[in-house]
Amino acid sequence: MRELIVFISRLVDLYTYVVWADVILGWLMQWNVVNPYQPTVRSIAQMLHVVTEPLLRPIRQLLPRTSGIDFSPFVLLLACLFVQTVVLPNLIKEPAHRVWDLYPSRATRRLFCKAVRGPACAEQSGG
Known about the structure:
This protein has one domain. It has five helices and no strands. It has helices at residues 2-30, 39-62, 72-92, 106-117, 119-124. The two termini are 29 Å apart.
């Protein structure tokens, strides 16, 4: 069971990187830093859009319309962080402070450690 939770945690972590890549590529294309008509850029953007859009679409429907700013990726990133820091530790049924090492991202481990055990833990963990 623990291995499955670790695998799910890593998938969620990988998905957060994909969401960030989609957001950053969208900004670069919007500001004409990257040419959106180049086939390679277009295929990468379409691939990222296909992977992220199924979870972003329902969030966009729930959020109120804003003038040109899409907050749905940030809501999705918060949901991923919630899953990693609250849901997965409760599935393992271990104390949360013992599960922080499941997360491959150093920044996520530091954030989780600070939230659960305080700043002294983050200093011990290399953060």
